[in-house]
Amino acid sequence: MTLQTLLDNKKITKYQLSMISGVPKTTILDICSGKSSIQKCSARTVFQIAKALNLTMENIMELDDNEYNSETGMPTDKSHFECGLPIYVQNSLDRMKKSWKIVDSGKKDINWDTCWCELNADLNSAEVENLISSEQAWYLRRKYLRMENTI
Fold first, then answer.
1. Which of 21, 93, 121, 131 is the most exposed place for a label (fewest CB within 10 A)?
2. Can you tell me whether residue 2 is helix, strand or coil?
3. At a CB cut-off of 8 Å and minimum separation 6, what does 33 contact?
4. Which residues, listed in sequence order, are joined to residue 68 by a DSSP beta bridge?
5. What is the pTM of this model?
6. Neighbour count for residue 125 (Cβ, 10 Å)
């Protein structure tokens, strides 16, 4: 679980945590975004966050365990690649999700192949136009088109 997930569960904003803990908002934002790791924060920062959330320091230190690559600092969960997509890609993605839901339930969806082709074409177009990165395009292809990069 990440600090952001914990805050969401407790219905506390990053700003509210900053106010009640005394930890600068930028520090909270960096931890929640993955730019900084809780393990690299000072004991005082961990203590302030723990106290504000009515948890132990140990609870806080365990929060982002294995959720970020220790070498790159990037999240291991790549779902952030689904954010900020061009609207036409998002619309195709939404249609593909609905189609997969039907197909995965064991039913036939007569629109599946159309949805698949449309999403594939939109991902290719957005990638070529540099609206999404190649890494982002391949994440979406693997997840929603169930393709593998053979290159």
1. 121
2. coil
3. none
4. 75
5. 0.54
6. 15
| pLDDT, mean over the chain | 89
Cα–Cα distance for residue pair 2/98, rounded to 1 Å: 29
Contact assessment for residue 18 and residue 25, using Cβ atoms and an 8 Å cutoff: yes
Range 49-82 burial, b when 16+ CB lie within 10 A, else e: bbebbeeeeeebeebbeebbeeeeeeeeeeeebe
Task: Give yes or no for a contact between 145 and 103, defined as CB atoms under 8 angstroms apart.
Answer: no
In the predicted model, what is the mean pLDDT of residues 50-78?
A: 76
Q: Residue 103 contacts by C-beta under 8 Å, 6 or more apart in sequence? A: 109, 112
Question: In this structure, are residues 52 and 26 in contact, taking their beta carbons and an 8 Å threshold?
Answer: no
Residue 135 tokens read as: 């890494």
**In 24-148, which residue ranges form alpha helices assigned H by DSSP?**
25-33, 43-53, 57-61, 87-104, 112-128, 134-140
Classified as helix, coil or strand, 75 is: strand
Q: Is 68 helix (H, G, I), strand (E, B) or coil?
A: strand
d(CA 90, CA 88): 5
Residue 74 · residue 12 · CB < 8 Å: no
Burial class of residue 3 (count of CB atoms within 10 Å of its CB; 0-12, 13-18, 19+): buried
